[in-house]
Amino acid sequence: MQLALDATSGWDLDAQPKPGAQPDLAAARKVLKRVWGYPDFRPGQDEIVEAILAGRDALAIMPTGGGKSLCYQLPALIRPGLTVVVSPLIALMQDQVAALRAFGVEAGALTSANAPEENAEIRGKIWDGSLEILYVSPERLAVGDTVSMLERVGVSLLAVDEAHCVAQWGHDFRPDYLGIGAFRHALERNGQKIQVAAFTATADEATRAEIVEKLFPEDPIVFMRGFDRPNLRLAFEPKRSARKQILDFVTARKGQAGIVYAASRRGVERIAGYLCEAGIDALPYHAGLEPEVRQRNQERFVREDGVVMAATIAFGMGVDKPDVRFVIHADLPKTVESYYQEIGRAGRDGAPADTLTLYGFEDMKLRRRQIDESEGSEARKRGDRARLGALLALAEAPSCRRQTLLSYFGEAAEPCGNCDLCETPPERFDGTVAAQKALSAILRTGQRFGVEYLTAVLMGDATDQVMKFGHQTLPTFGCGAEHTKNEWRTIYRQLYALGLADVSVGDYGQWTATEEGWKVLRGERRVELRKDAMPKSGGRSSRGAPAPELADEADNELLRALKHKRMELAKENNVPAYVIFTDRTLTEIAVVRPRDEAALALVHGVGEAKLKRFGRMVLDVVSAAA
Ligand SMILES: Nc1ncnc2c1ncn2[C@@H]1O[C@H](COP(=O)(O)OP(=O)(O)OP(=O)(O)O)[C@@H](O)[C@H]1O
Ligand SMILES: [Mg+2]
Ligand SMILES: [Zn+2]
Predict the structure, then answer these.
(1) Helix pair angle (401-408, 336-343), 10° resolution
(2) Tell me: the pLDDT tens digits for 103-132?
(3) How many domains does the chain have?
(4) Final residue of a domain: which of 376, 408, 423?
(5) What is the pLDDT of residue 415?
(6) For residue 420, which ligand has an atom nearest its CA?
(7) For ligand 1, which residues put their CB under 6 angstroms from it?
């Protein structure tokens, strides 16, 4: 084994595999501490690393930001030989290589974006055996001389990142990924068996089966890590004044990096516009922008500190900036899976991060219409409707949101204490009578009207429209005066989420009663509703300042100085700021105020290479602030 730190760095011999013995986890932990400066594995990483060190083929499913990369990077340093990593996006590879190099690891990427000299240099390191981790873009796998070179030098581990890209029916399918099997075959030409490890955050069964079939000659061990990301705070709010809700939330977190997802390009532009007006460093990102603009905005978001990106879901894969502190959905996401993936971009460093999802009637109708008007088969649409239903159920969840979310993924959990519903349990009431009135308004008016109209009827509001249809004579007319207009909207929304009423496509969003709704009308079923949702002028999510626990204790003056230094170093080295040190590391330094290298080395994320390269400068900043 060759570690990329220079020869004087005093590499711990214990971490090297003894001849004949398998490297064990204790050795792996030492490398983890020494190179990355992490005190321990994240949940699940240890068993995966252990399996890979033992030479097993493995498929690991871990949530976004769970720490998958480390599971192949660490064994790559411990075991002899070259680890080849296949990854779908060039930008993603470049960031990973930059991060590894900052940790002192010899890593490189062979991609079409490289200059010829760069490729030549990497090839040189492959030939002389000094390269430890090689990232290869999938289209390079079919390039003959890449394959023959790797076949000759020998590959000890083939790691496939974002392995769901091999699934043909999945949303991220990459035809090039289908070449991985052939690539493995080619490497095995000389009779050597190549160990394969595949990683993804997508866990549904069909995708898993397809990954196994396409990538593994024999069944691998499968690791499924829990979905919980306890550092993410979950919150939903009905849209009242979306603009104000978003502005309040973001200004309370000024200076933090965040993403605001919107359903349309127009929405993105609007949001980026008013955030900028409010003095937030915000940028837009959507498919309608010139590629260069998009690229530049993404780069600024990743590289700089505290940029807020207003984006459509086109902004997604490849954004593995670890210190995104919040994700807002300005519109209802598509499914629970996409919701989870999108909020998963926050807090990948494990520090507290906030999420907020806004939803309203218009969203429900829009999503519903998108499904109904889509091209898929009837069965597919039924599936999509069910998935939308699950998301609405999450939006209208009666208790702990995380429990509801995890149970969707088949996981049991205790109330989390880190969601809006745990913090402020919603008031509930027996809504049977209200539901009956709301449903009867739907039926008596012939299941032809939208919520505005139905509410007018319930409130006894004799509008021109109501008069025109003669509905002021209905027994339902004016029977709902005990609730406000807004409350009726909330009630209708909940009826929809509960599957008691349905909205059809069409300009008005005509409401109908479902089979279950009829049961309520006939008195066969009771309904519990949430009072909630009335403007309580915001829970902690829209008001209070965000609270990474440490940040409160940190000397802010010092933290600012450290961030400034980080920016300088990042510019100098032409890497994203987090590659130098993450927020978490800087905050910890600002709390601990290390006086010497030994103390600095104990800080999270300070490995040997970074200590050597940046330690002195960091200590100078600390002592200057004293
Ligand atoms: N044991 C650990 N201790 C502390 N931080 C860790 C640990 N392992 C990984 N991390 C950090 O967690 C962050 C996310 O890791 P990583 O990029 O590997 O996530 P991922 O599982 O690949 O997510 P995605 O599915 O989004 O690609 C990185 O900044 C990484 O350095
Ligand atoms: Mg990853
Ligand atoms: Zn909870």
Answers:
(1) 120
(2) 999 999 998 888 889 889 999 999 999 999
(3) 4
(4) 423
(5) 94
(6) 3
(7) 38, 41-42, 45, 62, 64-70, 201, 320, 322, 348-350
